[in-house]
Amino acid sequence: MSGAGSLTRGAEPALRGTRVIRARNLRRVPRMRRWMLALGTASFLGLATSAYHATMLPGDLEVARAVQTLDGPWIQVPLWALSAIGFPPIVGLLYGAIAVSIFVAGARREGILAMVATAGAAGLHRLTVEIVMRARPSPDLLEVAHRLPIHSSFTAGHVQNVTSFFGFLCYLLCVRTAPSWKRTLLLHLLVFAIVGMGVARIYFGEHWPTDVLGGYLLGVLWLLVVIELDEWLERRDARQGPKFKSSAQVTRGSPRSITAHQ
Predict the structure, then answer these.
(1) Which of 48, 90, 92, 128 is the most buried (most CB within 10 A)?
(2) What percent of the chain is modeled with pLDDT above 90?
């Protein structure tokens, strides 16, 4: 019996064990995501019901005034820039250009799903504001940068849309690209934009903190739905062959950049 043969046979059980553990972990992820969907939906419905019955909820005024005590160009300039990109037509042009760029780069499914992420978030926001009809903060209570007569206050549309769209971009970077300093930088910038958008909407007095919380909740819920759709399409493509060219046509264990299609 050779030493190499012994090592090979000895490694086989360990390799099989590793594969079993990895398979269990992969099955556990969708299950956890569905639990998050269920808990997030219940939390959002509870918050939306409270916002429907009350203009202000406990902590809204105190948190908003605390945020507005921040002063100086170091906070005003980045928050102004973030808030500005959430208004039409800039938001449509920016998010649309990013989604189209992904599609043109060859990752067609990812580009289409990026459009689904932002369009679906916008549709859900429109539906929610028509149902809840919550008044925006009053200038008598807070410093209001812009009087916005359109729509109601719940949810914060800027926040909801950036959470779904930029969150989906974060997902693509994590599962479709190899680790690098560029990926890390992009992830940090996207997360900064998501968090900063919520602060900006409170800072400029255009939303209550619970409007922003509602935007994050509904944005994450829609993001989870889009991720589920992406993974379902990937499984379908693995069985039947891809309908749309996708950067996900390689195994999860071998991430590759979306830009590799260029």
Answers:
(1) 128
(2) 64
